[in-house]
């Protein structure tokens, strides 16, 4: 499917987020492995195991960045399926596209630059929408969730993988890590402590498990549930379009 190329005007927060990801795009994949100790791979595998996708289905990976989930989605939809990799940031997106094309992605893959708040896709088009570590960066999460709902077919699934609220046992270590270790790691590896300070802050402000679940219900999702991963450091939320 050719959705064309659409760039949506963005306001201040979106501009700032774009700046952050422009500056980290090159080191992004290395940083993911370093910062999470490789755990992001496990969290993404857990997500892919819950898409319910079958050969021939259509999937959308929003805020897909360098395309980790997209790669798995392509495998799941098979020869007859369709996957769209979408992100607001052109640097991340072209990195993702290059990587996937190098690995043999063909025209089952479309790449679309878009703000998750204003999706350039038809109603009821996708069987599954994923957004991993992306919703946190979106200014109007309610609008974005409503858009995800709109582009899903009835019975289609939304999977939101995102940092969440860790349990009491883990929280002290987690705070120490994200406010002390993380910015230093960012400075050391990417020469950019600010971006990783922003990361820690944006994680603090992100809605906890129950709040995000309620937001999904407000957007129209049914049978909303979530899975805590690594003691709630990360949660996978899933909801269905009724
Ligand atoms: N999903 C990928 C992953 O898990 O590795 C990338 C996650 S990365 C931490 C967050 C991505 O969200 C960035 O690529 C950024 O450009 C994108 N993003 C931020 N705000 C967005 C928005 N409003 N709409 C779409 N994408 C956005």
Automatic annotation (TrEMBL):
Pathway: Cofactor biosynthesis; ubiquinone biosynthesis; Quinol/quinone metabolism; menaquinone biosynthesis; menaquinol from 1,4-dihydroxy-2-naphthoate: step 2/2
Keyword presence, rRNA processing: no
Classification via PROSITE patterns: SAM_MT_UBIE (PS51608), UBIE_1 (PS01183), UBIE_2 (PS01184)
Chloroplast recorded as keyword: no
Annotated NCBIfam families: MenG_MenH_UbiE, PRK00216.1-1, PRK00216.1-5
Biological function: Methyltransferase required for the conversion of demethylmenaquinol (DMKH2) to menaquinol (MKH2) and the conversion of 2-polyprenyl-6-methoxy-1,4-benzoquinol (DDMQH2) to 2-polyprenyl-3-methyl-6-methoxy-1,4-benzoquinol (DMQH2).
Name of the featured protein: Ubiquinone/menaquinone biosynthesis C-methyltransferase UbiE
